[in-house]
What does this fold into?
Amino acid sequence: MTTPATGPWSFGSRLGPLRGRGRRQGPNAGEASVADPELGSRIALARRRAGLTAKELGRRIGLSLWHVQRLERDAVDATPHLLAIADATGRPVSWFQETVQRTPIAASAPSPSSAAEPERTAPGARFPTVLVLGSLTLLLVIRAFTELLSVLPRAANFVDIPIFVLLGVAAAFSSPATKQVRAPAPALVIAFLFLAVFALAAMTNLTRVEPAPALMFLYGFIGPVVVFYAVHRLWIPGSAVRLSRLLVVITVLQLVLAFGVQLPEYLATKNPDVIAGTFGENAYQLVFFLLVSVGLLAGIFTFERRRLVSKLVPFLLLAVMVVIFLAQYRSLLITTFLTTLLLGAVLSFARGRGALIGILAVGGLLCTLVYVAQNVPELKFGTAIEQSRGDPTSFVKQRLGPAQVVGQLYTEDARFILTGTGPGTYSSRGWQTFARAAISSSGSNVAGDYVKALTNGRLYTTDVSDKYVVPQLLDAEVVDGSRALSSPFSSYLSLLAEVGVLGFALIVGLYVWAFLFTLRMTMTSVRTASDGDPLPALLCASTVSMFVLLQMAVLENWFEVTRLTFLAWIVFAVVTKEFNARRVTA
It folds into this structure.
């Protein structure tokens, strides 16, 4: 360890002037920054002048890279570590008490690592992070106010559009929070290629393509990518714990609503459709969010043992599993099981608590499933299990029916393999919204009335949908009380039909890339994580979100549902920014 040039100092004389300074009183004292907002910058300056990276400094003083970065951002009080920092950087403690004007950064030549340091921000500059968190909150809870409490007009369900615009404009007119941390390029490249395919499909099918359904198609598939880059530009590294806390609070809110408000109604009516949390009348969206929450909670239990919620994770996971089953969507049973297995496999690399929570999650899932199948017959999980035992391929066979219709479409006109039938013309969400406006105003979809007003009541039809889609809707087989397996609605099918094989490959490739990219970051973080770091848990949640979306898109047009995709891509943007910012400063 380097000895300060000024000679030996006693512990009391070196830390005495700093004792008691800068600890904010109150409930957040543990997370308080020092009163002198320049202490963190002086630590960073001393480290750079000593030719050390943040990771090397952390190794010398016995702290993780994440903790050193928090010290340099003044996110925590650096006083307890100041003696070790002074020794490691070859500076007396008195140097850290001097004003920055006495030791200006410009006065010394930067070390090779200094250019990679993340920029510090004033408190007011954290508004972009607040904007991201506020937008996500509004997106996830708005339907509780429009459909559950009915205190807002149902038109407020379209809040994703102003959120999309607001984030895009804010990102366009702001400088990046950390210039050295660039967003990964593949998503942008894929988006531009898909735009070219979209244009080709539209121009070669001008007689059947209409602007509004086509633009809605484009917004559904490309909007999440725009949100990803906007959030990546706006997000300030070091705020991961704020996103984690927000998602935990919203998870608890879902459970409170499900058990406190919706379960009594379910017991009275035996109608499981009422179990939807803050997602109004759409339990599918609730199940997606809860699966993402499972990833987050499992990560918190493994890597953030000191958080209060960590002690409650086993109970929260059990409650989440119960709500998932009460929501009745048996078609997501395989997805739930595969997601739990994925988490168990990933967390097992952390050993100890990671392997334990993986075993608990899988065991809790199986026990809950057995109990529900035996004691709640109206949910029909027992029937689904018996059917799977009799023919394990029955799920796949039933879902292949609508896919064969797309094959028939290709056979009758081979041109559609390359160009598709045109965006918004087959079974995408764009087609659904405009072609089914007469019935979409009921239930959880409020677009119908607005579409009818926009089109003066004119029904939107296309020749390909009339021939291939409408007959499937009329003859759709009910399987265990649901048409999910026989429905022509699926992101995969609509892409194949409307923009051809190339457009399908681009969008599916986009989500596969996002899943593999976040999985790689997760595995790296799991192996190197330090106790208390919130990033590994968020990475688990991000991995789960992409993994589940890839499966849900088989059943419906979920790649176009912004309440799901915006959540997934916002979390993906945050974890990517946080992960890469640490690599830059390592």
